[in-house]
Structures are given as C-alpha cells and as structure tokens.
Fold each of these.
Amino acid sequence: MAFDADAGVLTVEAGVTLDAIIRFALPRGWFLPVTPGTKFPTLGGCVAVDVHGKNHHRNGSLAAFVDSIDIVLAGGERVRCSRSEDPELFWSTLGGMGLTGFIYAVTLRLRAVAGVWMDTTSVRTGSLRESCDVLRETQDDHTYSVAWVDLIASGSRCGRGIVSLGDHASESRGNRPLHRSRLTTFPPLPAGTLNSLSLRCFNAARYRSQLRRRWKQRQHYDTFFYPLDRWAGWNRAYGRRGFLQYQLVVPFAGGLEVMAEVIAASRKAAPCSLAVLKTFGDHPAGPLSFPMPGYTLALDFPRTRRIVEQLRQLTPSVIAAGGRVYLAKDAILKADQFEAMYPRLDEFCRVHQRVDPAGHFASLQSQRLGLT
C-alpha cells in the first residue's frame, strides 16, 4: 500500500505473507525485523500473536517494529491505532489472537541489510545446562541465537544440541539466488514412523554432523531462518493424527529446573520430535503477548491422547515458576491455567468489551479459555 524506501517503512495489507514481503523488500536492501521459523504466515497473523524470532533477546517481538495497525471493528468501522492513538487497542491487538477486530493493514519498520547472506557460528553442546549457558553467554554478541536440542538422548546428554548464532553479513557479494528451491513434498507416513528409535537415530546423526565444537560459516538467510520451509508438507511425516506443539517460557531463575522437569515427564508419554530453545529479553509487550525475560522451549510431539494429558499435568509447574504457554501453539490449556499465566488479562478484557461487546470475534480457543 505504501513504502518509504529511505526509511524502510512499509504499509501492507494484513493478508500478505512474510514470503511476499521478503520478495519485495530484500532486493531493495531491507528485511523483516522479526520473523518466526517459517515465512508463510500472513503479516496479520503475526501481529495477532505478536510473533517473536531468534532476536528477541536483543530486539524484542514484532510489536517493537509495528508503527500502526488499521482494524475493522465488530461494528464495521475502520480505525487506526498506534502507541499514541488508542494505545490500549494497539497493545491488545498485538498478541490478541484476532479477538479485537479484523486486522486490515499494518505499518511496519523493516531492517536494513546488505544482502541475502548471514555470518553464523554453530556451537555444539553436551547437555541442556550447557545449551542454556552458551545462549546466555552470547546474548550481547549476536543479533540472532537459537538452539536445537536433542531430548531423545539419555542421561546427562539429554538436552545436548547445536546453538546457532547469526548476524546479517555486512557485504553483499554473491547475492543470488534470492530464494532456495523447495524440495519434494512429504507423502503421509504410517502412524508410528516417528518413534523413539527413529528419532534417536536422526538426532544422533544431526548432532554428529558437526565435527568441531565451534564452526563458522556463511549461510543463506533461507537456510538460517527457515530450514523446514524447504520441505513442502513436512507435517505429513507425523501421519494422519498430526502433531502437537507446546511452547513455554520460564524465568531465568529456576527455569532450567522447570524445563528439565517438563522434559523428563513428557518423555514418558511421547518422544519429542523437535525441540528448540531460545532466550527472551525484557521488552514492551501487550497484555496477551507471550514473551517475557527467560528461557523459551518449543516442543513438537506426535499427537496422542497420552501426551495431551501429560502436558496438562505439567502446566501447573510452568505456572508455579512464573511462566506461561504460547497461545499461538496452544491446543490444551484450561481456562483457569490461562488466567493464572497472563496477569494482565483484565486489561485485555476491558478493551475487548469496549470494541466487541457482543463477542462477534471468537474462536474455538477463545471459547475454551473463557475469553469469549
């Protein structure tokens, strides 16, 4: 809808995907200021969950880069909100799961970059504690940091992994190709293909693929930010029952022990097919925004009734530690658990009651959590 090429300020309809924004902005020397692990969500969806990325410890969530949001309210009127214009609606929409109204357009500040390349460092770790330590020790040194951790490994090796640290390269040589090609679509696999044995073999091979403890290289941004996007339909590897995601954040103080408890108990119910560990910094956020200072651990499981029940039993430990669960990946929270996790819930409810008193905007999740 509008673009200031000098300042990198983009106004775009909310239905445009992150991939489309990259294709437009990157040839002009700009990139997304915050991105999740896939480039195919819409920008409106990312605003609705106040999406975070590998740079939250330094830059915060998407909220830090959104200047204004145009919303169509339940009554049909189109309004604009920002930090100075109806700031309550602005902050409640960031992370508000689409419940404040229909996000029509977003004005976003992009990040200036030299090209498609990333200067990265990979650090191999031997335990969950070491993975956490490397992430904490490198917070001031790199823009992006994330750790893949192996939760299938036994004993003290559980939580070993590879910490990936990255920064945009300062020079633009060799800027082609702009995108990596997608690989073959996964066929649906039989139930049980992703089991403890197959995942143990895969994780061991991935861990041992890095021969040195520390490895520096130049990577394409697609490889660094979006490794799973190369596989169209990768979720089919889980079979027809699909998979369950569960992402938690816990404060740094005592957070390692809580994560270890969640890992140990969930292992009894289902093998964790993918585990990603990051750190969050202290940045402004909306009442329902997920990030808070601490460790965040994202877990993927083959979906079974047993793992759902186990995670529900573990959630009180996350609450007791002062943590919370990411609403964008929630499928199991109960209303009382949700209320205990988000202390600014009343603030959101006041805004929601003002802009949508009849509750026209709702979802299965909002009904389950008692929001609508």
Amino acid sequence: MQPIVPQVYRIPLGIVNAFLIVSDGLTLIDSGVPGSEAKILHGVRALGYKPQDIHHILVTHCHWDHSGSLQALKKASGATAYMHPLEASMVRRGQAMRPAQPAPGWLNRLIVRLLQTRRSATTIPATEIEHQVSNEAELPIAAGIQPVLTPGHTAGHLAYFWPFHGGVLFVGDAASNLFGLGYSLIYEDLQQGQRSLASLAKLEFEVACFGHGPPIRRAAGRRFRQKWG
C-alpha cells in the first residue's frame, strides 16, 4: 500500500495496480488479476478499515488483470460495481478479452508476445455489474468522481477523474508509464486510442495513476499535453 496524495493509495499487484480512495467510505479502482483479493484486503485492513468499508468498485475495463478479482471482492465487501455497458456485458458473461493488436514499437510487440506466451487469459469469474456508466456528470462517489470515456485500448474503456489535490486522473490502460509515459501495450483501435489521449490532454490534473507503471505525482496534465496535446 503506497500513499500517492492524501486519501489516495496505490496497491501494487505485480503486473498491475489497483487504487483506493478514502472518502465517504472506501472506493476501489480496478481489482487486479484473479486471486488479488487477499493483497487488496490486506491493504484495506492495514489502513484500519474492514472489507465491508469498500462501498464502490470502479472498473476501467474488462481485461483479466483489471476485473479478475471483482467477483471475490464484491463477495467479501458487498460493494457495488461500476463499468461501461460494453465492458459490463462481457464481465457478466465471464469474458475478459476482445481482439487487440500491440501498440507501435518493437518493444511493445516483444512484451506482448512474451505475455501471451506466459498466459493469455480470456475468461474471468462471471460477475454482476450493478451500475453502467459512460461519459457523464460526476458520480456521487468519493465526494464526486467523473467517468471519462476513453475508447481505444478497449471499446468501453473508462478513466476516472477525481477533482481534488489538483486533480487526480485514474488512467487505467488508456496509457501506461512502464518505460516513461506512453501508449498502453495493446489497443483494439489505436486511432481511437490516440483520440482519447488527445482528449485526456485537455483536462487539468496534477496526478496520473496508471494501471501499469508508477504514478506521475506532479504536473501530469502538462506531461500529457506535451505528448498528446
């Protein structure tokens, strides 16, 4: 459990991150790969909370490394889940992948090939999603958080913007910070993903939290504008 700004914590889960917002109870963003629930709940308890204090789970997209432990965490906490309708329909069926291609660059292609060799997970435990959300006004969660539709990595990918501490953007896999700020490893539609990144670059935010890679803690919006504005 790593503090990022007051009230926001990163939970490293090996290849992926989940995030916890402490405001009006606990809000979890993404759930990690299947079997991640023990690490996440350990982090919750380390902060002095109970699993039942997780009231909401916001999921960026359907991929197994972001939705894989959703069913287990909902069972442990009683939390309600939020996703875009296109992603929710897959998770309800236990599906975690649509066809996608590596982002440009030989390193992305190599990493994707290595990951596919090790494990290519296309299914997860089927899980109910209570709330379908899209690009809309802020949700009454964590004192107000706004879903931002960012298709490209997946068709219904959502980032989440939390307007505190200068603005905190939970990027999901719209971009990554594995080897510096850049593309995610794979995209269902790269051109659409590029348009989404240009849209994110118009937002004002100080901090960016990524599904893959460490957060950018200062001037993150400026970094996005320099790269994709």
Amino acid sequence: MLRWIRGEHGRPIPRWAPILGLLLLGLVFGAGLSTTGWLHAAGDGTPMAVTAAPSPAQPPASFAGLVEKLSPAVVNIRITRVERAAEGPMAMPFGDDEGPFGPLFRRFFREGPRSYRLQGAGSGFIIGPEGYIVTNSHVVEGATEVTVVLADKEEYPARVVGRDPKTDLALLKITPRGRLTPAALGDSDRLQVGDWVVAIGNPFGLSNTVTAGIVSAKGRVIGQGPYDNFIQTDAAINPGNSGGPLFNLQGEVVGINTAIFTRTGGSVGVGFAVPINLARSLLPQLERGKVIRGYLGVQIQDVTPELAAAMNLKGRQGALVASVVEQGPAAQGGVQRGDVITAFNGKPVADATALPPLVATTAPGTTVPVTVLRNGQSRTLTVTIGRQPEESRERGPAGPR
C-alpha cells in the first residue's frame, strides 16, 4: 500500500488524501451516471434532468376485470337454414318399387329428397339499448330463423335488418324485455401493430370464450372482396367466433372477427377482423336495410417499381388509373388514364387497395377533392361521387397483387 504520493511541488500528501479523492470522484461520477440524478448542460452549467428510458409495454396482470365488464355485450347467435339436397326424380336403385320398402324408395327416388334443416352458430355484440346487434353477414346468410342468446342465457328471436356481403357485415334487431349492455365502439385507425386486443365469442358453441393477443398487422388483403382491409391478430379465433367483437384494452370494439387462416380447421394464430371504422360508416345504411355505395368510375392498379421508373415517379404511393369509365364521375371530374391518385377527400391513398373503401363509404352526390399526380405534377380535382352499379367494382382485372 502506498503511504505517500508526491505532490506537484514535491510536498508530501497525507495518506488519507488518496482515499478522500477517490470518494469524491465516486460521488461526482455516481451523480453524473445516475439515471435519476442531474447532469450539467454543456457550456453554462445549468442542471439538466435525466430520466430512465421508459420500459416496454407489459401485458396486463389479468384481463378479468375487463372481461367481466365487456361480456354482457357479447351474444351467441343460433341460426336455422332450410335446404334441399337435389331437385327432380331419381331412378329406383333396384328397378322395382314393390315390396315392403317400396313407399320409402318412392319417396326418396321418385319424388325426390325432402328439405332438411341445418343448424349454425356465430357471435355478435350489442350496439344499442334498443336491441341492435352487429355480426357477420355469412353468419346469418340464408337463415330462416335467428335466435340471439345473451350472456345471462336469455333468448330472443331476431330479425335481419340489413346485410352487406361485400364487407361481411350484418345488423340484427331484437325486442329486449329488459335493459341491455351495449358495447362502446372505438377507433380502429388508432390501432398500432403490437397493441393488445381481446376477443370474446362462442367458438365451437362454447359461449363466452375469451382469448387475447396482439395486433399482428393492419390493412391485410386476403381475397375476400373488393373492400379487404382486415386487422390481423394472433388472438385465437375459431369457428363460432365469427361476428364477435375484438376489444382494445380500453374496452372498446375495434374490430369484428371474421375469418381465419388455417390448415387444420382451428386457430393457428392468424385471424382477421373487419375494422370497426368501416362498420361504423355502414351502420346507418344497414339500419335502412341496404348499403348504397359511392362510385368513382375507374379501374386501378398498384404502382409497380417498373411503372414508377417509366413514369419518373419518386415513390410508389397511390393508385394508378388504368382506365376511366366514359361519362363516369371520375371522367366528368377530369381524372385521366395514367393519373396516380394520391389522396381522396383529404385522406392519403397508400396503394390500390386503399382507394375502394374510401370511395365506397362516400355517399353518392357528395363532391370531394381528388389529388392526382399527372406528368410529375400534383393537382387537385373536384369529383362528384355517383351511385355504384350493382355489379360495378372499383378494382379491375389488373388490380393489386
């Protein structure tokens, strides 16, 4: 151990000085490196607060309180569908309709098979105290009887108020005998990939089943129709969950569980939900029984790297107009073949899949600004949206891949 250290001018330094110096250095550096201490800003000696970086979001300790609050808004939907197996007479299997089984054979082979009843099930959620319920269109398609079962097991006959197969949405109505608990609708546009979500439904007929996961992706196109814009989640969704709600951690519905990707028939962690904002825009029309969509009158496609290079575009954002319907709303508003639509009614158009839902949810007769790139220059046109023909599609054969 060193007993003495020579000073600057050769003066002896007491043996306790090095220890004191080390202690002082420790205090200085300790304060400077502490995540909750103070550092001095460069130059002026003003103290500057330093705080620890926020820790990553942690899953809640339990979903129990949330589920207890939300479950009364979720319903089980049972449907009955009547179908016939075939039409017209069939040949007798043995060429003779005599004998003890003759009447039975004649019934099924000479007269044709009778109709039979199929049972199905799905999920839904209450959106109003007057008894309106949202579910999927495919859940009640072809149904002759619809029964809604509440969380308390009370049953109600329901009627289908409106259905929209293109977005797979349906609105039902029951006449409640008591007070209902509606679900609050959230804002699906504010969802971020990685956010926690909770699904409640009736998979395989098992009522009020809860699963949880995260938002895996947004804006998924899965080939279900011209208005694909699904939320992808790894919360387990199975047959029977269709039409049920997808909640955020604030207890708001942000999606309607609709489809799964599976090779086994069960959940493999890839489920899809219709964004609640899309459903919200269509609910007033569903309440009137029919959805009337806006119509622009164009066929569009994605801007590929080759097209972007050929057109001297800086990026690939927007929907390229492949053709314009003669005398259609777009043509009358000045949209031309080769334009790239980058915004519609003030909302950005990222690609060709983003435009059809924006147009479809715009009421016919509405005049909107449409921003296009033409010859490298941005310009804003004014277009009055028309009413979509029954079989019209905004996306043509050369649609997005």
Amino acid sequence: MDQSKPRILFFAGTDTDVGKTYIAALAARELHHNGRRVGVYKPVASGCHWVGDELVSDDASKLWDAAGRNGRLQDVCPQRFVAPLAPPVAAMLEGRSVDESLLLSGIGTIAAHAEVVIVEGAGGLMSPLSHHLLNSDLAKRLKAQLIVVASNRVGVIHQVLATVTAASALKLPVVGIILNRVSPDFGIANDQNAETIKRFTSVPILADISFGAVASGIDWNALPPPMDVPSPIAQAWL
C-alpha cells in the first residue's frame, strides 16, 4: 500500500436504517481522539433540510462533528437533495441529476489532509448512488476497504451473508462486520446471530455494538488487513 495515501474505510450497510452513520461517527470520533488525522466523506445525501440558505445533511454533520470539524462541512457532502428517497430519484425531483464524476473526485479535498478517510455510503452496498453507479461501484473506484454494518435483528444473518457474498463476487476487500443493536428491544435469539454468522464466513465480526453505546470497543488503529473473501455459499459445501 502507498503509505502517502490515506486508508479509505467504506462503511457499507446491509440495508437502510442499520445505524451506519452512528457507527461511522463512533469510528471517526475514536480515531480523532487517538490523534489520527481523520477525514469523513458522505458522497451524496438525500433527506436533507434547509438551515437558512444552506441545504444540510444531518448524517454529514454528525460525521463532521465526530471528526473534529476538520475542513468545511460542504466538502464532507458535496451533493445534497431534499426528498428522503434514493439519491438519483431525489435529484430527479429537483430537475437535477447526481454528478457521477463528483462522487469520485469529491473525496480529494478530504483525503489531502487525512491519514484515514471514513466514507459513508447511502443505503445498502448494492443501493444506487446515481443512475449508473452503486455504492459498490464507488467503493471499488475509491480502492476502499469495506466495513459492513448490519442491524442485529431478525434477518441479519441473511443480510450479512448476502452482502459479503456480493462483495466477494465484486472482489471488494472486506475488513470486518459490525453488528449494531439499533433498538433497546433486543430478543434473546439475536444473541446467537454473531455465532451463526461466524460459521458461514471468515470475515471477522469486529464488534456487537449495544444500543446507545458511546464507544465501539474497536481498536481502529489495529484493524485487521482487508480480506478477499470467498463466498460463504461455497464455504458451506466444503
């Protein structure tokens, strides 16, 4: 790896509403407090709101705050739309389109002053960012390493294994999985999800984050190297 370039960690969800911003902000805050120069990048956001004459992404604001407000908030999320829909649809409703070249080039300002850049996608790994690009496409073009974030609830086993399988097929390197308890109503059966996931994939589970946790319990400075992950489907038959 070129040591002059920052490590890019792409936080990819298994679905919407899995707490991806919450987990990415935890990572940014802990890296910043440990003295690392951390940048944050939200390539495009929908569901934004007006503050005066500025359209603001709450997700981008949370990431920016967590990273110590380095640089300008506008650079953290250069493309913002109002409707709480997939970005290409939200843009279309405004008579606009997502600038695909800016999705890639927008990280440049952030990366120029960072040792680690945390990128938060929109939706799941295979969700669209524009008419032609998915989150997975952007992660690949950025040469990013994936951290898969999943809500620890009924269905999470399928969602995690499907996301890891997709990453494997696309040859996207995966650092690890983070299970996130997005609700205080946590069923006893969900305690078994991590162990079940471990049986079907070699991707490490970095943490099972409790609801309302203020720390991740992850040593972000000592993350494992990314894995080129074999498909869990193939592994199950060995």
